């Protein structure tokens, strides 16, 4: 049976990925590690939880050795908008934290999953049908850390044979745990505002088109890639994956089909708008589809329908 460590387990992806991994492999075989000293509401006291700052290599080593982990889903990271406010800390967590994970994986023979992002692209990258292999000159600190992470994962595979795999996630939409400080957060916030106030003031322009994905697809993508036959993988790390691509205006129109009195206004945040303007509009994810069978389930109408249902049911 696998023994899996999830770092960043109390974050937006971590809470849901941890639950799905526990359902699949047994709660006792999935160790959740988070920076916070408290459990997220989705994680119960009975399931293994460790407080971990990924910058602390010795603490990380102790957890992996103590539980005899063979796989690490390394999700701990600062997101794009918050990284612009704390660039040194963002580098430390996103790059040095990953380096600690890779070194620990090398020592203990673990496989590693690393989430990169559309943020790994920049203004010179082709914005439409962004190829799997293309120019990457991001101008956000977050993007720079993600490119460094992609390269480090490739390096540890080629140099040391560490079984690294990864995805370039688009904006992720979910209703269990809020994202913290990303450029695509509007696509989550809008649902809570729509249900509660029937109005949302968006920090990106109405025509800002970005790739997006609903969380069940994002979780399935990570697990499917980690379980793929590595002989069929040509890329291993940093696969482009997307499920839909839309603008705030289009998302608002889809919400209005369910809530006709919903309205949207725009108060642009120049920092997040500049980041969004430097990212692709729509990635080509054919390499992921061909190499390990990537196929999302949720499109825009299905995502909007489910998000509104879940948020309304939970009374959030
Ligand atoms: C962010 O907006 O920073 C993240 C991402 C696209 O990587 N959601």
From TrEMBL:
- Biological process annotations from GO: L-threonine catabolic process
Supply one GO molecular-function term: L-threonine 3-dehydrogenase activity
Limits of the NAD-dependent epimerase/dehydratase domain: 4-240
From what superkingdom does this record's organism come?
Bacteria
Coiled-coil-forming residues are none
Q: Name one Pfam family in it.
A: Epimerase
Annotated family: Belongs to the NAD(P)-dependent epimerase/dehydratase family.
> What is the recorded name of this protein?
NAD-dependent epimerase/dehydratase domain-containing protein
Native species of this protein?
Crenothrix polyspora
């Amino acid at each position: 049976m696998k023994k899996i460590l999830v770092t960043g387990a109390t974050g937006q992806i971590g809470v849901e990925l941890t639950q799905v991994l526990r359902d699949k492999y047994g709660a006792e075989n999935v160790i959740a590690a988070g920076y916070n000293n408290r459990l997220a509401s989705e994680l119960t006291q009975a399931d293994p939880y460790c407080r971990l700052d990924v910058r602390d290599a010795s603490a990380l080593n102790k957890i992996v050795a103590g539980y005899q982990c063979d796989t690490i889903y390394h999700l701990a990271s600062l997101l794009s908008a918050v990284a612009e406010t704390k660039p040194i800390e963002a580098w430390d967590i996103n790059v040095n934290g990953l380096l600690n994970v890779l070194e620990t994986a090398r020592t203990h023979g673990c496989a590693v999953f690393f989430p990169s992002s559309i943020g790994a692209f920049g203004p010179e990258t082709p914005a439409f049908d962004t190829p799997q292999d293309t120019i990457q000159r991001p101008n956000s600190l977050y993007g720079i850390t993600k490119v460094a992470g992609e390269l480090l994962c490739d390096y540890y595979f080629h140099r040391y044979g560490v079984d690294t795999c990864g995805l370039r996630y688009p904006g992720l939409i979910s209703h269990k745990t809020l994202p913290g400080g990303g450029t695509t957060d509007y696509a989550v916030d809008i649902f809570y505002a729509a249900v509660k106030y029937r109005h949302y003031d968006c920090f990106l322009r109405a025509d800002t088109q970005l790739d997006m994905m609903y969380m069940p697809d994002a979780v399935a993508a990570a697990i499917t890639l980690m379980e793929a036959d590595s002989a069929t993988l040509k890329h291993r790390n940093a696969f482009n994956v997307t499920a839909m691509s839309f603008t705030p205006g289009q998302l608002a129109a889809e919400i209005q089909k369910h809530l006709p009195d919903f309205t949207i206004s725009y108060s642009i945040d120049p920092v997040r708008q500049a980041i969004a303007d430097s990212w692709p509009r729509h990635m080509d994810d054919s390499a992921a589809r061909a190499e390990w069978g990537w196929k999302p389930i949720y499109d825009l109408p299905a995502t909007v329908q489910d998000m509104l249902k879940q948020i309304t049911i939970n009374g959030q």
